[in-house]
Amino acid sequence: MKKLIPILLSILITLILIPNIYALEDDTSYEVLKQNQVDNILLIGRDSLKSKGPARSDSMIILTVDNLNKSLKLTSLARDTLVDIPNIGQEKLNHAYAYGQEKLLLKTINQNFKLDIKDYAVVDFTSFVEIIDILGGVDVDVNEKEVKHLNQTIKTCYSLNDENKGKIKYVNNSGNQSLNGYQALAYARIRKIDTIYKRDERQRKILTSVATKLSNTSITKYPAIVKNVLKHVDVNISLDKITRLAFLSHELASYDMKQLQFPLEKYREEGRINGDGLYVVRWKEDENLKVLHEFIYGR
């Protein structure tokens, strides 16, 4: 059973909450904190439902806070991307997490894509459901093609938690829908109707909806929200980064939201290794990295 789970929830909640905890001493401190204009955080969705073997990272999204160009950027990394995993060899990107969890996944991403990401946030299926419910659900535009497959997946996602959740709820219509936790997880796991890249796009839609909802939530509700959310997320974000971003957090609601699927369609090809081996996504390094770096660090 495969699939997803992204979450920038706790990150955004924390960034907005922190200004209530840390106080600026003077304007100079604020200017110093603004000097680091681009911050990257790896959002990892861990598959916790596999019956055998270690979990893999079935969702990997780089959250970029670009203070220079005032934008939030989401870069989805295709799970099947063929990479060189340190001390392992060439395999799919999501295998790195199974071999060495966050540390090895970060090292693999940084070495293959020439980045320097140090911070991450991890959630699994159950955490995803819990967090969405804490936030009161998310609004997602569901198209007609997705409705049938969404409902087929809802039953599985509903059974993730043994706690009494009431009667199972399905999505009856297309269009803008308010999805609860297990419904949102089901939506993010849809994959058989199109491609892995469309699934990544659905995951980014959920994150965008979460960001919008948080920006419209009364700040008085943040302490209770963050207290509950952080119980479900594993993060290693440095205090320096949290503090620096926190002082800028009041501006985030006005930032543009930009998205990128990596590797790019015109610079990748899909197939099996040696004809009958692993199904992978091969990518042209120079062309892809040029676009990736420009997207993250450029305008």
TrEMBL record:
Domain Cell envelope-related transcriptional attenuator: 56-215
InterPro entries: LytR/CpsA/Psr_CW_biosynth (IPR050922), LytR_CpsA_psr (IPR004474)
Gene3D superfamilies noted in UniProt: LCP protein (3.40.630.190)
Pfam families linked to this entry: LytR_cpsA_psr (PF03816)
Domain of life according to the entry: Bacteria
Annotated family: Belongs to the LytR/CpsA/Psr (LCP) family.
Record protein name field: LCP family protein
